[in-house]
Task: structure prediction
Amino acid sequence: MKRTIITLLPLLLWLALPTRAEVQEHLQEQYYDVQVVSGQSLNRALNEASPIRQNGQIYHAYARWQVQWNFWWREQRDGRCRIDLTRTRLNATITLPRLGGGDAQQRQRFAMYLNALREHELGHYRIGQAAAAKIDTALRQTPEYPSCAELQRQANQRANAILQRHIEQERQYDRQTGHGRTQGAWLTE
Result:
């Protein structure tokens, strides 16, 4: 009899723990090449080289992020269900230009511009980080439901609502910063 109690004790302790969570983040930078010759407009060279085009607009940098979530639940004998474990992943890629050629003044100007571009795109990434953290928290705080089907539906609705709010926050971020202009990501030439 003691052996059964000892064997069940770790399982009972694990079941009594609060919901466990794990947020994983992966950020990757990728580059496209820009060739500029002395005297050439840096802005024009970037516009010609940039692969980033949306709605008829050319952008010199871009951040793309995606949040994925999983959760595991435990069903009680009476059918009630609650989440025991969550795993939320944020995968992001920032695309930036890489300068080749140019004179010292162009390279210096590009370096300052690139820093501002990177900072702006990291702002997008931080919005993705906030989305992932809030989704994970919301999933862990999902209350118990009368059935696992209802739990799954409600948890995914909560996560998707948070995701949509952060996608809108990204749009507002671009409007407020003029797609990075107010942060120095702007070439006048």
